[in-house]
């Protein structure tokens, strides 16, 4: 009797350990907010530059163009948005006002706006057109309103900051729910400034008082909008306009200002913007912004310089494929349309993405995991092996790696941190891409991975990577053929891998 009770107690003890190990792993480090999770899920969006600058064949308008110059007689927001959607992009950001100060909506804060143009006899609202086209096509919508204004006579004084905040309030009030409020560190220089034509400089560390603007206006009026700027708060700048992130690009970062002052857009230490900081204090993933053409605005002499599909795919793998987001600049021509070369390239790029990622060959493999959270205790336990327990184990098993769900995941026991996933195929498969994701709701946990294939009766390393995060695309130096693939994971805590793809 005593022996039976001892065995029962031992079994119950093992069962309790098993139940404990099938609980969700503890989060690790800085974590994304709900709005950041939504941003990660968006992955790709477009930034549309279109102002009188287009008609002047310039990259930056001086602020002196007559509003009558802006008259895109064939403007069609739907044509632009449809092209973005065909490219696989899930959102657009309208440049509602660029540095030239010309507002594409009939703002009450300045006479330098679209109501003074000849387009639609001054009755148009281009921001509204973009917002409605995005809604029709199921794309998310955001806005950028430049803080620098080369037209406004009050720029550089406190009065202009009040004007700028009123412009943001108009944009936040009249164009539905925004997925992004996009900002940069444009901080003054030469401009028209109401006819004074002079240089105006501002103190980058405090002029715009950004944090009060974001906390008291953006967060209150558009709580679901991710705020982009080179300093964060939700999404950081990559540090270049090539769209290419470093090989190691952490979503976490410790952002610092200069000279002991708080970090502000255009006034911060930019040394680690691209790489981020392993175990940084904030979760602020990067956005890689790059134009489809050499310039952000349309120039006829660049019609044959649109980036190729191969270039776009390389940018995609070096931005979205390194845990960040891709913001591609589109530039309508003077008619108000995307050039056919731009439209064709976007369509081909979107088709290529669908083709490349259409078939995850890992779904056909037998996946053997060196450890599954709760598995050891379950196998040792002599009691309570019910269907409920089996379902509990499935919470963290191999099926989660190929279900295309970002938040179901394979997890290991707390004490098991260096593990392997081995894929065995019934016949050799050809592949050139390995894709991995972590369940970032639990933080960025993995330090590095190694990819191996079984060749000539031995395991051969063919690739390695760091900083997995929301998405990691590992492009192999050359296509490989193998019937066994092994991935080794190294982490300071138990892992939480949500996807494994072989393409």
What is the fold-level CATH name, i.e. the topology of the largest domain? TIM Barrel
List low-pLDDT spans: 1-20, 380-385
Strand content: 15-25%
Instruction: Count every helix, treating DSSP H or I runs of 4 or more residues as helices.
Output: 11
Spatial extent as radius of gyration: 26 Å
CATH 4th-level superfamily of the largest domain:
Glycosidases
Averaged pLDDT, please? 92
Distance between the termini: 59 Å
Structural class call reads alpha/beta
Query: Mind summarizing the main beta sheet?
Result: 8 strands, parallel
Sketch the topology as an H/E string, one letter per element: HHEHHEHEHEEEHEEEEEHEHEHHEEEEEE
Assigned CATH class of the largest domain = Alpha Beta
Short description:
With 503 residues, the protein is α/β, with parallel strands linked by helices. It has helices at residues 2-21, 34-42, 52-55, 77-86, 126-137, 158-174, 210-221, 309-317, 340-356, 375-380, 387-394, and strands at residues 44-48, 91-97, 140-145, 180-182, 188-191, 198-201, 226-228, 236-237, 252-253, 282-283, 286-291, 325-330, 366-369, 410-411, 419-438, 448-455, 458-466, 472-490, 496-502.
């Amino acid at each position: 009797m005593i022996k039976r009770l001892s065995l029962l107690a031992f079994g119950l003890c093992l069962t309790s350990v098993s139940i404990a190990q099938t609980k969700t792993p503890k989060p690790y480090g800085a974590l994304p907010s709900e709005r950041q999770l939504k941003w990660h899920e968006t992955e790709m969006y477009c930034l549309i530059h279109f102002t009188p600058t287009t008609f002047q064949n310039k990259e930056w308008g001086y602020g002196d163009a007559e509003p009558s110059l802006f008259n895109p007689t064939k403007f069609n927001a739907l044509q632009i948005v449809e092209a973005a959607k065909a490219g696989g992009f899930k959102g657009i950001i309208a440049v509602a006002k660029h540095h030239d100060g010309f507002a594409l909506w009939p703002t009450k804060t300045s006479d330098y706006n679209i109501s003074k143009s000849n387009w639609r006899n001054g009755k148009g609202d281009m921001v509204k057109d973009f917002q409605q086209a995005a809604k029709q096509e199921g794309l998310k919508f955001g806005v950028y309103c430049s803080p620098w204004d080369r037209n406004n006579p009050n720029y550089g004084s406190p009065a202009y900051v009040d004007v700028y905040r009123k412009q943001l309030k108009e944009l936040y009030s009249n164009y539905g729910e925004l997925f992004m409020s996009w900002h940069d560190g444009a901080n003054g220089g030469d401009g028209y400034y109401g006819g004074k034509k002079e240089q105006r400089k501002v103190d980058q560390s405090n002029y715009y008082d950004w944090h009060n603007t974001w906390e008291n206006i953006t967060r209150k009026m558009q709580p679901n909008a991710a705020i982009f700027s080179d300093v964060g708060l939700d999404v950081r700048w990559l540090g270049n306009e090539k769209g290419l992130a470093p090989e190691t690009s952490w979503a976490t970062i410790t952002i610092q200002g200069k000279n002991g002052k708080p970090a502000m857009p255009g006034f911060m230490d930019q040394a680690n913007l691209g790489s981020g900081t392993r175990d940084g204090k904030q979760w602020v993933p990067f956005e890689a912004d790059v134009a489809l053409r050499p310039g952000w605005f349309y120039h006829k002499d660049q019609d044959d310089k649109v980036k190729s599909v191969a270039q776009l795919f390389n940018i995609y793998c070096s931005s979205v494929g390194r845990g960040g987001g891709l913001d591609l600049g589109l530039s309508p021509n003077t008619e108000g349309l995307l050039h056919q070369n731009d439209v064709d390239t976007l369509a081909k790029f979107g088709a290529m993405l669908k083709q490349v990622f259409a078939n995850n060959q890992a779904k056909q493999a037998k996946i053997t995991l060196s450890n599954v959270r709760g598995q050891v205790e379950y196998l040792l336990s002599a009691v309570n092996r019910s269907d409920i327990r089996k379902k509990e184990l499935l919470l963290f098993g191999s099926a989660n790696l190929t279900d295309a769900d970002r938040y179901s995941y394979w997890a290991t026991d707390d004490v098991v941190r260096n593990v392997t996933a081995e894929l065995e195929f019934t016949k050799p498969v050809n592949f050139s891409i390995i894709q991995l994701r972590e369940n970032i709701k639990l933080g960025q946990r993995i330090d590095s991975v190694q990819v191996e294939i079984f060749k000539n009766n031995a395991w051969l390393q063919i690739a390695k990577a760091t900083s997995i995060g929301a998405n990691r695309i590992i492009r192999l130096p050359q296509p490989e053929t193998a019937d066994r693939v092994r991935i080794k994971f190294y982490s300071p805590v138990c892992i939480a891998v949500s996807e494994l793809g072989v393409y």
